[in-house]
Amino acid sequence: MSSVDTEPVIALDVGGTFLKGAIVEGSAIISSERWATEREGGSHHAVERVVAFAKHLAMSNPQAKALGIVVPGVVDQRNGIAVYSENIGWKDINFRQLLHDATGLPVGFGHDVRAGGLAEKFYGSGVGVQDFLFLPIGTGIAGAIFVDGKLVEGSFAGEVGHIEVGSGEACTCGGENCLETVATGASIIRRYEKLTGTRVAGSEEVVDLARAGDRAAQKVWDDALEGLAKVITIYISVLAPELIIFGGGVSKSGEDLLRPLREKISKVSLWQQKPRLVTSYFGDNSSVVGAAILARQQLG
User: Can you give the pTM of this predicted structure?
Assistant: First the structure.
């Protein structure tokens, strides 16, 4: 590990619900905090929240040598621009320049999922694996694709959440039948509440209810698993990964997610190579550690 790898940096992961900020040394998160994204206030307000949070983190951590920020949606990593996010609504935001102006720090910028994949490759569940998919399931679903040890960098690569699974439901992308309509944390909550009229605190509660025998929860959870199994079977038919790493909030279900997925994939993939299915080493923090990697790239 070089001296650059151990330099303290600020890592900022922008999500549709929360902004997660941390001081990271190597792969170790030294301290962290969260702010609400407040996307309901509009895209301009969400951008202001990001800038204010970055300023706060920089002022609170003067020892930090650089800042890394990762965002959802379509990004122009080379120029530091968030091109579009369907969940937050912004377009063509030059975060690299905005945050450099706000903090005076060199700024690394990238896509949240691909950055999370880098964290898993260098420090986590993907260490030593050449061909794998990092698949976080949270507000949305997208994947970081590694082939022959290299990350596929295309701006639109990995958008597996918009593969059709026959749900019959409209997606926020403007299409219909997308995996995101049944398998994101938000869609699991929405579908359960629609079926039962009962409010739940999160997708984990739906999984707990399914485990306890609640039939509506079992249906909602099984629909999510069926959709995931269909999409994963398509993926492994094309790229034959050794490993699939699940991240994001839904991955906290652990074996309640992995065990039935293994069974469903085995039933529909009769000849394809079966990948190992595991959960993320870093849990919800893969993208935070990935943002730190991007920050350190600015230090040479």
Answer: 0.90
